[in-house]
Fold:
Amino acid sequence: MRERPLSTVPWPVLWLLMLGFCLQIAWHFSQPKPQARAEDLLPPPTIAALHLVSLGDPIPLARALMLNLQAFDTQPGIGLSYRQLDFAKVEGWLERILELDPRGQYPLMVASKVFGSVNEPSRQRRMFEFVYHQFLLDPDNRWPWLAHAAVMAKHRLHDLPLARKYARAIREHATGDNVPSWAKQMEIFILEDMNELESAKILLGGLLKSGKITDPGEMYFLMEELKRLERR
Structure:
């Protein structure tokens, strides 16, 4: 088919085409720039559904979910603060991941050190309580994260009763040989900070008489600590 020259097109039609083109350009530049929007953290699926997806090998799935959760603050075109996340959903995901891999330590480390470090006391307390309840399910392996929560409760939240609660839980429940003495003795020093010297002396004296302290250096240190408490 032979093309017709442009000169055969009527001028009114050409003007309409040019006007339409200019209006399209003007409309394009008048539109607001596209903005990245944060995606909401979805609730975790049931543990039965996750086991089905894992095809009988839950540990790789648990690790992948943990990495995805920790990186959720970085989305395409936008960066979030952990404070903007729904911590109820965060807690749900952490619990599901631990159900997939009960021996895993990483979820509790992230709960106590990453999500537990947000600058908002209510969210910190929520994460520390999560660590506390998960600790009770496996004290001899999960004590480090509750010990960290105790330190944070003392120094960041300035909540000595809460710190003592966690330290007492370690003393009472984390009784394995792999749990170091300093972790079992945290409650004594927190009691001293609370000025509950008599309770601290009772715990320390009971520890010395229990026969569980066999290292001479540690025994000497604790005896000197007891003398110092008595002088106070």
Summary: DSSP finds twelve helices and two strands in the chain.
